[in-house]
Design a protein that fits this description.
This protein is an alpha/beta fold. It folds into three domains: 35 residues, no CATH class; 319 residues, Alpha/Beta hydrolase fold, catalytic domain (Rossmann fold), CATH 3.40.50; 147 residues, no CATH class. The protein contains 15 helices and eleven strands. It has a nine-stranded mixed β-sheet with strand order 1-2-3-5-4-6-7-10-11, with helices on both faces. Helix 2 crosses helix 3, helix 4 crosses helix 5 and helix 14 runs antiparallel to helix 15. It is globular.
Length: 511
Amino acid sequence: MVRATRLLPVSAAAILLAACGGKSVGTSAPSQSAIPQPGQLLQAPQATGSYSVSDLLSMLSGNSDEAQLLKLTFAPFCSVSVYHMEYETVGGQGEATTASGAIMVPGGADPSCQGARPVVLYAHGTSTDKAYDIAALPGNSEGELLAAVFAAQGYIVVAPNYAGYDISTLSYHPYLVADQQSHEMMDALAAARSAFSTVGATGGSKLFVTGYSQGGYVALATLRAMQAAGTSVTAAGPMSGPYALGAFGDAIFMGEVDGGATINFTMIVSAYQHSYGNVYGTAADVFSPQYAAHIASLLPTTTSRSDLYAQGLLPQYALFSNTPPAPQYASMTPATMPADLAPAFALGFGPSPLVTNAYRLGYLQDAQAHPDGGFPNTTTGMPPAGAANGLRQDLARNDLRDFAPTVPVLLCGGDSDPEVFYLNTQLMQGYWAAHAPGAQVTVLDVDSAVGTNDPYAAIKSGFHAAKAAVAAAAVAGGATDGGASAVLQDYHAGLVPPFCLYAVQQFFGRF
């Protein structure tokens, strides 16, 4: 499989930037020390707030899904100070840019809140908000969970916002570009470590890597990059990530349209077009005319999702036309199996779709000629070789199905996830079964039955109770489907995250 490589190592970047400075006769070139380097902190981190244990519990109890954590054996015991940092990194083309993130530092009288502390490097989930800032507490729900589940348990947390967000000078976000995102995680960690002494943090010898959804993918890609670089990692806990991008993309085009399809598709096409330039000649090659003119620079944005839909900038659900691109594809317009997800798939089809039927047809024909080894049939289990479609080439390039970790890993998710299909976790599990990792790997489905002597019994029971509560509330509000639609709607972004995050925290605690 072709893999993206980091386009400019630090030394090469410095040489090229100096060469591009247009040095004139009699003018000395800038010194290398004056050239910003990836991982360089740009200024002293700024404090955004300090939160007591009661503050953190109050944040959690204000959200019905996060409040489920309070029903587990969960008790934060450290106060948390949060800092906003800015650092240098690179974009998807290797271009210099800036980015920002959070450093969360535990404090308090408990011995577990003091001295050298383990570090958690965290990758956040998909956001369309250009101003996204995980250090903005209270208000950023993912940041609140991080502070409560990790920092308040004695971990130092480092969490980038990613290039393209907040104060970043990059005009796009390299969404699911494995090389860029993994190296930016490493840049954020380097910048944070250089600032630890100024924010009252002392990093210990243990480093943990985790993240959810997009961040689950980024976490596994980061572990791979760190392993290749010889960086010591204690353990990793990727959660609900699209690790098997080649198979996932094919599943979507074959009618299993995920719940966030129009957002996710727009972001991934923009990222790959900016990074590799091979998805389309013009946006109209992929996108329907009413969307093509503005789509390349649409996301991330300061416009809310609801306003994007209301202004006709994106369809809310319809990724594809409800007219099959050719008669032989009628059975996948939409897909009807698995039956419990069929209602979610059906939402992805409509009369004014984001993607043209011509593009969908070309993609499907390429998938037929160069099938993925993991979907729709399991053969090699690996991404397709020789794909002609540019998007399929890029998905295969960024697929993680050739990576076997050498440190303990917990993959957590839910097997009825309608947005990031559990297929991704199953295909990684299949690869590891055939290519034994160098350390123990554990796969946790929080939606599975509680087993005998199950170490995750409380988490599974809590998840089932939370799911039942969502369904019951929907029925009380007049739902006639037993609450099934409400559960699907809340599954990926609301129900699964707190339980997987808590499972990962328990897992890290073993080390």
